Amino acid sequence: MLTNEQVLSLLGTINEPFINKSLVELNAVKEISIKEEKKHVSVKIALLKTGTAEQMQIQTQIVQLLKQNGADTVGIRFTEFTEEEKSQFNEDNQENSSLSLLDNKKVQFLAIASGKGGVGKSTVSVNLAVSLARLGKKVGIIDADIYGFSVPDMMGITTRPVIRGERIIPVDRFGVKVISMGFFVEDNSPIIWRGPMLGKMLQQFFTEVEWGDLDYLLLDLPPGTGDVALDVHSMLPSCKEIIVTTPHPTASIVAARAGVMALKTNHEIIGVVENMSYFESKKTGEKEYVFGKGGGERLAKELQTTLLGQLPLQQPDWDEEDFAPSIYDKDHPTGKIYTSIAKEVVEKIVLNK
Q1: Segments of the chain assigned to CATH 3.30.300.130
Q2: Which end of the chain has fewer beta carbons closer than 10 Å to its terminal beta carbon, N or C?
Q3: Which CATH superfamily hosts domain 101-352?
Q4: pLDDT at residue 309, rounded to an integer
Q5: Please, which residues have CB within 8 angstroms of residue 270's CB and are 6 or more apart in sequence?
Q6: How far, rounded to the nearest angstrom, does the alpha carbon of residue 274 sit from its chain's CA centroid?
Q7: Tens of pLDDT along 88-120?
């Protein structure tokens, strides 16, 4: 059965819908009560406003999260923050809003790039973001693959950002703040804009989204070295990059072009991730190297960086109630590899600061 500490930790992954900061960070969890014999958890949560659609959404989030982690029944009471608390939040929001994300020295930008499509770059992006959040980091992700946006579907996101005043509030999923062109396109329509229009949209993602306090902002870049990738490189003078490839020699050769582009724009490559490295039979445990061997190691050597990890060709376990088709659970064998990669990324960034 859950403990008070575990309940608090779980609630820390959910953001207050109006202020867009963690419930724990805002001291919004006012009471926790647990009845072990009935596996019942009761919580009292403070919000900026009660009796709203946002309250119903967060209520559903909390119930699902606690039930997934061991509670049979969940009781929730809502209250509003005191006037003193509200005034403090207003001061904090004014301070945060005055600082553009591009000028915020506290945020570490981390771009995920590849030379070609189909190597699993977006899968790596979303799982790395979730793994960093599981390590307690404050994480955001921009789906900058504007022609081939896929992050919302991969993460099982069914809601859209909320507009408050002149600011866009990103969607929160698995403790990660998410923004994507997919939120602003109807019926999965193709994007037919020209480069300058796409560059303007990316600029808005950086400057008009209320990201709040972040440790890491990940960018799922388009494959290759086209206009959108170049725009991102020019917008971010200080950015770390991870290059994703498969073991196949052709994929690693093409991926090297993305690496060279990063280096020419003064972005630091902190590592290579090799995806689809092998297929492991559940019956025999034998590994089959479907796409060959050595591509990741060869690319890391060419770019004078580290091979951060090798990911198998494997499917996540799906939860029909909380469907996220590309997110690996932290206890899944591949989820553990992502956790290891996330830890190494944090360590390399801290050492290089």
Answers
A1: 4-97
A2: C
A3: P-loop containing nucleotide triphosphate hydrolases (3.40.50.300)
A4: 94
A5: 240, 241, 242, 305, 306, 308, 345, 348, 349, 352
A6: 19
A7: 776 555 544 445 676 677 889 999 988 888 889
